Amino acid sequence: MKIRAAVARAREPFRIEEVELDGPRADEVLVEVEACGICHTDLSAKDHDYGTPLPAVLGHEGVGRIVALGEGVTRFAVGERVVMSFGACGRCPSCAAELPAYCRHARDFNLFARRLDGSSPISQAGRSLTGHFFGQSAFASHAIAAAHNLVRLGDDLPAPLMTSLACGVQTGAGAVVNVLQAEPHDAIGVFGCGTVGLAAIMAARVAGCARIVAVDVRAGRLETARALGATEVVDSAQTDLAAALKRLGGLTLAFDNTGRPEVIEAAYNALHPRGRIVLAGLSARGASLTLDLNRLMASGRSLRGTIEGDADPRAFIPRLVDWYRRGELPLERIVTTYPFEQINEAAADMLAGRVIKPVLRMST
Length: 364
Fold this sequence. Notes:
Layout (H helix, E strand, L loop, with lengths): L1 E7 L6 E7 L6 E10 L2 H8 L8 E2 L4 E8 L11 E4 L8 H4 L9 H6 L10 E3 L2 E3 L12 E5 L3 E4 L5 H4 L5 H12 L7 E5 L3 H13 L3 E6 L2 H10 L3 E4 L5 H7 L3 E6 L4 H9 L1 E9 L13 H7 L2 E4 L7 H13 L9 E5 L3 H9 L5 E5 L3
Parallel strand pairs: 11-12, 11-14, 12-13, 14-15, 15-16, 17-18
Antiparallel strand pairs: 1-2, 1-4, 2-7, 3-5, 3-9, 3-18, 5-6, 6-10, 7-8
Helix pairs in contact: 5-6
């Protein structure tokens, strides 16, 4: 079938073009896309040699309605509304352990944007385009999605707000709840207050953390962080970060999504004995940390990374939806919507810090 898709070419603006989309194969569905969030990962894949073959149709935070089922799909029905999350096979040891973010095929689905046989459902003028990004490629009017990626959504839920549950909000909230396992006695620092960081702050508030310290270089982001639950804020563009954290009494937990070594080191050094820090930010190639190994050993601190907040979307996204329904996840505070045709404006606004989470509304 012919569909409209935003085609990504290296260091060029997105162009909305007509492409061909195959029907769903076994264990896949065809989704008519209502909305899709834009994530920094999409722009990294397009412009920073992330490894995704170009030209490609990107987009990995899609919400829409199923219009056709592939062979063997029994958990879903035509007409159901779904959020499409990241790709995973559902069968490897990590998937069996309910840790699909560490699927042994994750690089194929989420980075190289291909099915396991190397194929793509999208083509143009007889030539294949990369079109299985995170198992969906949802910068389009329609998408072929792996059934294992899908989570059912109620018809009453606003599509633009639900898109970020697929990745950004899931990552930040999951890092706090699943990885750091924050508790009321904790003092948590969140470094970087974009979608992921603000989701972490909302989750820390739900967890009842005694202190929630938000760190960013944009005053507007820090105002939003405070409105969403931060008890203290640090503008690291205006003050020495290490000194500010020391004045605040240090941290028991830290979550970084800046990917900046100097920020991570400051966060690590601010941890109390047996404190824990988790990293979710993409760093520059070759970036490294300088840590005092004796201090690491003697303090009992720990440092680790996370993908997608260690979440299993089928279990965690419904939990996030419950938070939203209870008013504990005010996603409207971070989402700004754009018509699909304004994808380049939306991306530019995000990079410039004018908006937090841009979401595209598809014309259907």
